[in-house]
Amino acid sequence: MENIIQTILEVGLEKPVKILHITDVHLTFADENDPPEMHTTMKDREALFKREGGAPGMPSEYFEEAIRLAEKEGYLLVCTGDVCDLNISGCRAEFHRIADGHDMMFSPGGHETQKRYVRTMEEGEAYVRTVRPQVEAAFPEYDFLLDSRVVNGLNIVTADNSLDYYSAETLARFRKELEKGLPVIVFSHDPIFDTRLNAVEKTHPDVPLTEEDYRISHEMIDLINTHPLVKATFTGHSHRADERIHEGKPSFVTPGLFKGICRLIEVR
Ligand SMILES: [Fe+2]
Hints:
Helix content is 34%, strand content 22%. It is α/β, with parallel strands linked by helices. It has a single domain (3-267), classed as Transcription Regulator spoIIAA (2-Layer Sandwich). Strands 5-6-7-8-10-9 form a six-stranded mixed β-sheet, with helices on one face. The chain has a five-stranded mixed β-sheet with strand order 1-11-2-3-4, with helices on one face. Strand 9 and strand 10 (249-253) form a beta hairpin. Helix 5 (168-179) runs parallel beside helix 6. The longest helix has 18 residues, at 36-53. The protein is globular. It binds fe (ii) ion. Fe (ii) ion is lined by residues 24, 26, 82, 109, 111, 237, 239, 256.
């Protein structure tokens, strides 16, 4: 790993919890099930992330290293998506090859369901409606919409906002998490202050959202921002490090793992 950002969060636990946060791995693999042009696309994408990341290692190597490190040190590994650069067979196979059999909490990114060359909004909408369930079925070990784990009295929650909104089911399940009465930290793909996530009307070319969807998503965002049990958010998506107080709460963005960077969070 080139850099492990150290973050300490005080929430009043009797015993601390250590979490290794990784995000935006961007594995770029095509295999025999993918069309020939996808092999070229993946080579181009690999070069692009190499340029953007400027790191000596490959994304797959950093992913493997993070898993090894978490297991060796007893950190809880939490990943906030964009493990696959595109939703293609080669990327999914590499994700499975590296992560299967290892303990990891996972919330998806937009790239897990994304393909290139969707031309119209209708095509994009149909694609996401069909493809998202297929991608979820390909990774049955993860609960895409919401997952949680209580460690030393801290409730660690992953909540899906990868398509730039929180769904009704994610909101309903998040309310149940709050009913546990424990301090909560939230892991999602998009930063809680992200412009698209906070949009009040249609901006996403691939996702069919109704006014009701926006209302629900904003209810979830408000809950995260204002509920006293929610202590902080940890996200990815922008590939850059960011730490700020948003609506009175600490909000951390961890850079892409393809840069060889992850975040070690010690919650006390
Ligand atoms: Fe990403």
